[in-house]
Amino acid sequence: MKKLLGLAIATAFAGVAFANAPAGSPAPAFTVTDLAGKPVNLADYKGKTVVLEWHNFGCPFVQKHYKSGNMQALQKKYGSDVVWLAVNSTNKSHGDYTAPQKLTKELKDANAAPAKYLMDEPGTMGVAYGAKTTPHMYIIDPSGKVVYNGAIDDKRSTSVDDVKGAKNYVVAALDEMKAGKPVSTASTTPYGCTIKYK
Amino acid sequence: MTFPRLLFPLAALVFAATAHAAPVVKTEHVEAQLLAERTGTQPGKPSMVGLRLRMAPHWHTYWKNPGDSGLPTKIQWTLPEGWTAGPIQWPYPKNLPIGHLLNYGYEEEVVLLVELTPPASAKPGMAAISAKADWLVCKDVCIPENGTLDLNVNVASAEGSPDNRWQLSFERARGMLPAQPSGWVFAAASTGKTVTLKITPPAGTPLPAKATFFPDRDNVIEHAAPQKSRVEGNSLLIEMKHQDPVPKDFTTLAGVAVADRDWPGIAGRKAVVLEAAVSASAAPAAAAQSTSTTPGSGGGARSEVGGSVLVALVFALVGGMLLNLMPCVFPVLGIKVLGFVGHAHGDAKALRMQGLVFSAGVLASFLVLAGLMLALRAGGTQLGWGFQLQSPMFVTLLAGLFFVLALNLSGVFEWGLFAQSLTSNVSARGRNADAFLAGVLASVVATPCTAPFMGAAVGFTLAQPAPIALTVFLALGVGMALPVFLLSFFPNLLKKLPRPGPWMETFKQVMAFPLYATVAWLVWVLGQQGDIDTVLGLLLGLVFIAMAAWVYGRWALSEGPWRYAFTALFFAIGAWLAAPGETTARAATNATAKAGAIAWQEWSPQKVSDLVASGQPVFVDFTASWCVTCQVNKRVALNNDGVAKAFADRNVTALKADWTNHDPRITEALARLGRNAVPVYALYVPGQGAPRLLPELLTPSAVLDELNRLPAAPAPATAITQR
């Protein structure tokens, strides 16, 4: 009973602490280390469009988009116009946690090309953004405002076959931004695996 | 052992040979199998099959809305020609919390039910069906798994018997299917931050104390945020946090409500499926009265409106009758009773006519008032019941009117051209006009008195479409006219009243004093709205009006023009003196805070939310100086040593929301509570969503009871549903 109560209080507390960065709100600032251990700030990319991709190779939903080559293609598609940051909020004690060195190799093997890969092991950045799933996608415009928050596409599945024919929300948003138009679908429900927070 | 008894196991053996158990597909974390509920299926008739998933310990699969992550199980059927398969019928899920997030799904075992229908032309014999099932099974990691499951279904001319191997599995799955109860009312209201679902089973059934809502859609509520459920009257309310942003197409809240025990009237079922139209603004959470105040915007909430309109009408009717006893109506009623006594022993027909006309006067006034309020509401003006008294001009006019009436009762002057005309030949028409006016007058003066029942009815009315609003107002008027109306139709009752005589003059003169008291009260109201000069103006004005009345009465028999000239002159001077100036509308906030040991502070919506957020309980007195009930409550219940001590002991902050002058913030706050009239007493307890509303007729014990329910220390914010 006592344990249950403790859990309930902890959950209630967690519910309060778990923030959200809905589309239209200013993007929460962060300082997280990359795979090389160097600190990365959101402020470093002021004036640029930033894409955040919550990542975990252990997740079948992430695997869907890497096995199909979909995510890698996206990371390269917009060149230097868009800063692509992959974020990993998996905690150290979880089976899915991969050390930076091994992860560097896995990313290379997968031909992944994010500008930076951020190790958010304590989960602070994930919690600040309210990231729920892997993948969970955010787009931050050059003024530092979140303009997209949600799923990668509209086909909630782990099947590689579903990548083709799905509406990719990130592509749609980035193309609209490039054309100087407002993002028409600014928020969707992300799908994927639960982020393995601490 | 007899022969047939021996036969039975034999027959079962034979059957078992024909109806094989379908093969079990084993994956790493799940054992999957298709089950047929019965041993035989008739052509053209649906029969139930189930996909049973047995998960490894601590692993789970998902419901149709998986929550924050995950994926619902999918089935693709391969069926013989002409067969059809229905959608998956999902047993209700359970909460599966993971860190900051929440999923909906199943642990241990689940049987997903599907109806299969062979064509009417199906030939008897075994039919092979096959299902490719995809499921995502998760613990702290997720594995997508699938299996192709086969089942042979026995098509027979007669419906087979339940297959006792799976009977328990099917029974359990059926028990977990959400029921579709009839006669229940579901409503939902969204504040933009929270959405509150209101579940009202047919009356008279005890409600479960708690329920958890599982939405069909994955983007309407913050799954992991604790849901708060509570019982109010005949309804169970569940308050949930919205996801940010709320989707634009969110107009109905659909899903499954799972109670902590069986729902009333549907034994064995903890879950009901429901769909509720979502209305914006004020939450039904605020509807503490059994009269619902869910704003019925649009046709979606029709059933909700239908149910509570009747309640509102009854409340309005009773409220209207009680209005007769209110201090501000009673004097007028006194005048009316005088009239009745005067005529009761005369013409019954004329009496009936007067009763009708009086009622018509009341109804007409209520209709005009309702129309006015609706028109102003349409114009976007924030108004509430009793709003007339927020206008200094209206208060002044009313004071003058009552003063003149009081002078009349005191005998300073008589109505009509001559004193004797009252006692003899008043024309029927004149009397009827008199009755009509009495009806109008009674209605006008009744409005500021919020009788119990009436606050809720009017709050309800203001949120309703015009025809319903008008009907409720009419009911209020009918209630008010009813006692007088009945008296006029059953003069026998009137005969029980004393016969007219010299006592009437005394009685009449005595009746003047409540009117003078009313004038005193109105002067005080004006004093709250304006300054002391305004009050002096009104009082001097009344003096001149008294002179006008005296001149009119003193020279009643004179035929000369001077009588009218002086009456008019004095009256004009009086009116000019009494007319409130431009500067009258002064904020009257500090004037009321002096009495009592409770340290009242000025109310603001911000202050309430700040204090509650900091863990402080807050008591708000929504009041106005023109509200008689408010003043009575203040003296009886709030200016009480015990109550003041309890406020201090429980560390309750007392805020006074003074509605004496028009204040849109207060009007809005009242609307949020489902009210449009004062008094309203609200106790905000940290950690509880909606405030508790205290009765409109306050007693010290009612206040103490509420305060004593507060914990001595600040309440912990742990109102959590089952996790």
TrEMBL record, chain A:
Residues in Thioredoxin domain copies:
21-179
As one GO molecular function, the record gives:
antioxidant activity
Q: Does the keyword Signal apply?
A: yes
**Is Signal found in the keyword set?**
yes
Q: Which residues form a coiled coil?
A: none
A Pfam match: AhpC-TSA
Xref: PANTHER family:
OS07G0260300 PROTEIN (PTHR43640), THIOREDOXIN-DEPENDENT PEROXIREDOXIN (PTHR43640:SF1)
UniProt name for this protein: Thiol-disulfide oxidoreductase ResA
The protein's organism comes out as Usitatibacter palustris
UniProtKB/TrEMBL annotation, chain B:
User: Kind of enzyme, top EC level?
Assistant: oxidoreductase
Q: Which UniProt keywords apply?
A: Cell membrane, Cytochrome c-type biogenesis, Membrane, Oxidoreductase, Signal, Transmembrane, Transmembrane helix
Q: State its location(s).
A: Cell membrane
| Any GO BP annotation | cytochrome complex assembly
Which InterPro entries is this protein grouped with?
A: Cyt_c_assmbl_TM_dom, DsbD_gamma, DsbDN, Thioredoxin-like_sf, Thioredoxin_domain
Segments forming domain Thioredoxin: 578-712
Question: What name goes with this protein?
Answer: Thiol:disulfide interchange protein DsbD
- Organism, as annotated: Usitatibacter palustris
